[in-house]
Amino acid sequence: MNATVAYQAPLLPTDGGYWANFDEVSKYNVSLNYFERMWLAYYIWINNDILATGIMSFVMHEVVYFGRSLPWIIIDFIPYFNKYKIQNHKIPTVKEQWSCALYVLLSHFTVELPQIWLFHPMAQFFGLETGVPFPSLLKMAYQIAIFFVLEDSWHYWTHRAMHVFPYLYKNIHKIHHYYSAPFGMAAEYASPIEVMILGLGTVGSPILYCAITKDLHILTMYVWIIFRLFQAIDAHSGYEFPWSLHHFLPFWAGAEHHDVHHERFIGNYASSFRWWDYVLDTEAGPEAAKKRRERKLAKAKKAA
Ligand SMILES: [Zn+2]
Ligand SMILES: [Zn+2]
Asked: Is the pTM here over 0.85, yes or no?
């Protein structure tokens, strides 16, 4: 751990499990808040930073991924919500949900686990802070906002490329389009290569930011990844509500945006925001097509 941060830690973990370490840490670090002491005690207790970060990252990913998917699975079984389902004639079957869950789990254990294990050495190489105290909420908020913008741009161009080049579509992206009416858990139903390419936007954005500014805490990165997982799972949920976020933030993409992409295979390539598709005229759906036709017609009239 970084030696310059303001805390005192025993050099070796105390016997008696995690909470004994927590008590020990609490004795000497009254200035740290409860979560900071929990964090510090965890790293001391595991006594191996690579392992500690690896376990935390993997468990966090699984808990957030399946935890966030669960409400959508439940909602699929409740007829009341059917009126909010975008493609409401296509409710995923139990069999579809299971085969998707198994595929995603298999991919997490075989493809993502080793990558997550490399995370701590890589984070250290680029100077990510792992100690305590934590950064302020304000700093975390603006850094995460930057990552959202960076990731969205990366996603737009790589995702669009996977649709534009038939070779990439056939060999990589086709798997993700197996479900034409997506559901929450289908967010990471994708080829391992795609997981790596698109994952680079999620992990690479904060790494790039840290390489330039030398000011990023791994906790901020975790919170960012949690938000990004929420975004991806919700975008695949298949549900559009009157209270969906894009009604309040018009540039937010949400499920309505990505569902059309799965239904029509063309357009709406961005992940979190609508601006790339809007500016570059790649919006999908009948309304966008109508606008495009009208623009063409107006142009033709002008030329005549
Ligand atoms: Zn696609
Ligand atoms: Zn998708």
From this structure: yes
Angstrom CA distances, 143 to 149, 150, 179, 205, 251, stand at 10, 11, 33, 10, 19
Q: Is 182 exposed, middle or buried (0-12, 13-18, 19+ CB in 10 A)?
A: buried
Ligand 1 mean position to 94 CA, how many Å? Answer: 24
What integer pLDDT is reported at residue 120 of this predicted model?
85
Domain boundaries, the chain: 1-47, 54-303
**pLDDT digit string (tens) for 293-302?**
888 888 888 8
- Rounded to the nearest whole angstrom, what is the distance from the C-alpha of residue 221 to the centroid of ligand 2? 23
User: What are the two backbone dihedrals, phi and then psi, of residue 129, each rounded to the nearest 5 degrees?
Assistant: -80, 135
pLDDT > 70? residue 86: yes
Give me the pLDDT at residue 91, please. 85
Residue type present at position 174: K
Q: How far is the CA of 209 from the centre of ligand 1 (A)?
A: 27
How far does the centroid of ligand 1 lie from the alpha carbon of residue 69, in Å?
Answer: 20
Q: How far is the CA of 29 from the centre of ligand 2 (A)?
A: 46
Q: Which two tokens stand for residue 297?
A: 């017609």
Location of structure tokens 């737009």:
156
- Residues 147-177 pLDDT 10s: 999 999 999 999 999 999 999 999 999 999 9
CA–CA gap between residue 109 and residue 101 (Å, rounded): 12
CA of 271, nearest ligand number: 2
| 266 CA → ligand 1 middle, Å | 8
- The alpha carbons of the chain give a radius of gyration, in whole angstroms, of 22
- What is the Å distance from ligand 1's center to 112 Cα? 21
At residue 4, the pLDDT reads 44
Output the CA 96–ligand 2 centroid distance in Å: 16
Give pLDDT, residue 97: 92
**Whole-number average pLDDT of the chain:** 91
